[in-house]
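Q: what sequence does this backbone want?
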């Protein structure tokens, strides 16, 4: 059995296809196509009723507002996740670079402090239970 979101997605796809077909029928309307047009309109009405019926099943779903910006810009909303992942990876690389720089700075600082203040650094290491700083 499909999840409520998959079920809603299927109904929306069917609805969109019916609306697209109505657009085609109406753009080149012929009187003999009235019955087909009426059937498609009934299909759209039924589709809207089904979508409304499914609404409570997905009402607790949270969607970031940026996804709607993607849709408004004519972009695929599935690209939102890809863009978020790329931004997170870039930020992660940036933060990891900073962490690495601070670790190198700490190691260098400990070496320099040990050279200038050997007794105090020995006490510091005893308190911290640190081993020799890695270079």
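A:
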């Amino acid at each position: 059995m499909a999840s409520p979101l998959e079920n809603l997605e299927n109904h929306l796809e069917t609805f969109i296809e019916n609306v697209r077909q109505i657009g085609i029928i109406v753009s080149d309307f012929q009187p003999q196509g009235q019955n087909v047009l009426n059937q498609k309109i009934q299909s759209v009405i039924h589709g809207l009723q089904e979508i409304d019926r499914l609404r409570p099943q997905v009402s607790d779903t949270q969607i970031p507002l940026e996804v709607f910006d993607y849709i408004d810009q004519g972009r695929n909303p599935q690209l939102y996740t890809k863009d978020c992942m790329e931004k997170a990876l870039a930020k992660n690389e940036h933060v990891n670079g900073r962490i690495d720089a601070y670790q190198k700075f700490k190691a260098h600082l400990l070496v320099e402090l040990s050279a200038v203040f050997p007794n105090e650094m020995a006490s510091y290491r005893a308190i911290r239970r640190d081993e020799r700083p890695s270079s």
